[in-house]
Amino acid sequence: MRVESWRGKEVFAGYIDQAEANANVVMDEVVVGAKAKLMGSITQRPPIVRQGGFSRATVEFTPKTGRNKGKPVLFNTDKRWTGRRTSEMDQLHGSIRRVNKPGSGSVRVYCGNALAYWAGMVEKTGYTDRGGTKHAPLHFLQGTFHAQKQSMLGKVAKG
Fold it and tell me: Is 3 a member of any domain?
């Protein structure tokens, strides 16, 4: 038996596009839930600690042990934002976003950027503020995703 003129990609392209659109809707719900959980979790609004600016550092030293012992080591660090704005909550809240590559089937939600590079610490490990108080991790992305995980497959398949 032989099938001629089979256009599988064309036949299933509509289904794939619809599933990707449904996945975008589901992940948008995760973004909204994560922003709401973050706003409810952070209670104090920190003041401006220092004015912002990007900076780099040139590091130069001579190691006393290891394979480069006695040889000078020189490197430049990446450009990093050194300031703090009105509120860390606003920086984190504004950096939660959905990212996808059309046609790849990959839909992701990210938090953090060059101005709020500490998002991973707040989400996974917790953080210590300038007063020395240790804060527990706020699982605002992970918790919201797991809350919708059970119904996610049905929403992607059926819309």
Answer: no
